[in-house]
Amino acid sequence: MHLVPSLAVVVPGAVVEVTGDEAHHAVAVRRLREGEHVVLTDGVGTSATGEVATTGKRVFTVTVSEVTHAERPAPAFTVVQALPKGERGELAVEVLTEVGVDVIVPWAASRSVAAWKGDRAAKSHAKWQATAREAAKQSRRSWAPTVSPLASTADLVGLVAGADLAVVLHEDASGSLAGLAVPASGRIVVVVGPEGGIAPDELSVLTDAGALSVRLGDEVLRTSTAGVVAVAALLSRTARWGQC
Prior knowledge:
The protein is α/β, with parallel strands linked by helices. Helices cover 30% and strands 26% of the residues. It has helices at 20-29, 88-99, 118-138, 153-161, 200-208, 223-235, and strands spanning 2-3, 15-19, 37-41, 46-55, 59-69, 76-82, 103-107, 146-147, 165-169, 175-176, 187-192, 212-215. The strands form 2 sheets. The protein has a 7-stranded parallel sheet with strand order 8-7-6-11-9-12-10, sandwiched between helices. Strands 1-3-4-5-2 form a 5-stranded mixed sheet.
């Protein structure tokens, strides 16, 4: 699958030109050749299947045979991901994208070891965006996820308050995901804390805004994997994964 800026006016029989880094990676790295069948998507629900007609150094064209439009998945999932250290941030973004999360919000929690400041903030955010983009292609998503700007704890209040269901993962919580009523539509928000855990004052802010404190089980997961486990548990009880 390859991402293109737009497929809004593309119809079967049309020729779509793919250029830039997307084309360079396909032709120079993946060795894309004429006659191969590929899928193009604009990341907002439209996909086009077709045969590669021509290739160049930083360009290839596709003759479209079929165009499909997918409805936006419901319910929508937003994961607030506290900044992990090292490359675990990209790991979290990758697996969250692959499982189908719609919005990923990087969170500067008080106990986060990593910090996004100055030039590093822009570079780190761009890296998360690039990771989400590549993971969306790998998982063949017609709706690509959004990586929001870095959020503070105060920024999360409105996000949590506006959700149809909001949960914050906490190892000392008495509640669990098993007993929750999962909405069939709207937005579900999952808040994942940093390696050092969510600070008591942050937990109070989130629960006062309407989030439910829940635990996943007896095991304490890493911040980079806890989110995908929670989302998968919730997805299994929605129509997105074939449940009623």
